[in-house]
Amino acid sequence: MLHILAGGWGYPNLGDEAILTGYRDFFASQRIDALVTSANPERTASAIGVPRHDLGVEGSALTGHSTGSMILGGGGYLNASWIPEIHRKLKRLIADRRSRPLVGHSIEVRGVEDPRFRRKLARLLSEEARISVRDEQSADALSRIGHNVDVLPDAISLLYPAVNKFAGHISYVTGRVVLNLLDISRRPDSTESLFPVDRWNDFASQLISRLGSKCIVMTVGDGDEKFLLSLPPVDVIKPKTVTEMISVLASASGVISVRMHPALIASMIGRPTLSIPYCGKVRPTLKKLRLDELLVQSADVDEALARLTDERSFDEAWSAAHAECASWLRDLVGSDQSPRADAR
């Protein structure tokens, strides 16, 4: 049985494509057949290293395919503030779902107060859907529109058993602290930040100055490079694929990241890691993963650098997160099964 796997794929964000890499590895291990659809199949194919013809075009309705479930993979793309792309995306997802059973796996939902977004989301997530989310805020949001859901760890946990096979060695990065920096103050969700936004630019500048040649900035998505123009000169590395991004993180002596998924992957492979809670999704996601000690809520550079010397393993937390996330999905779509009627 062929399932459809849709999600936040095809956008200039390697963190989301890393989530997809985890799904593909998990599905292969379980012998689950799934056609991946992408908003930009060429970009996704390049990012994850597969032939373009292996991917479907999101929104094409896929009428030529005999399918099982439509699976909405994890990530934060179901967000009303993502204007105008979210409305185009929901239209495409609705077209692809048609009458197929739907499984929403470890998704994040924000902004159901927006009437237009709420109506389209309701069309996509019909009452027949089985849904899990990655944080309690998403669960509360969906409960307001009549859905009872399960709360799971972030879907990046599916990557955990296989992450080291993607981790190469980059000598240019070895022994250096990798930073990923965004202009937090310009984001519409900056009011949710647990880090003092008015101190962020100074904090980022001090990090670069204090680390000097031991510092390198990794850019992995839209907006990463533009912010660097306001900061002291610094070496930059621009991975183009998921494998390259994981290799950068694996080669580092430590990682401080605004983007959430690079921080999660770095902790997964045992690097001293700090995560900047720049918006409301970060803390609840890390809390569910039992990784909330990675959060940085102070603009104290000395404290941050001292924390980067703390090497510890999070294997226990990641192993538990993977087991929970994988078990839920396996029960619904494993062994060539569509969602069972009694699973609701």
TrEMBL record:
<dbReference type="GO" id="GO:0016740">
    <property type="term" value="F:transferase activity"/>
</dbReference>
<keyword id="KW-0808">Transferase</keyword>
<dbReference type="InterPro" id="IPR007345">
    <property type="entry name" value="Polysacch_pyruvyl_Trfase"/>
</dbReference>
<dbReference type="Pfam" id="PF04230">
    <property type="entry name" value="PS_pyruv_trans"/>
</dbReference>
<feature type="domain" description="Polysaccharide pyruvyl transferase">
    <location>
        <begin position="13"/>
        <end position="278"/>
    </location>
</feature>
<protein>
    <submittedName>
        <fullName>Polysaccharide pyruvyl transferase family protein</fullName>
    </submittedName>
</protein>
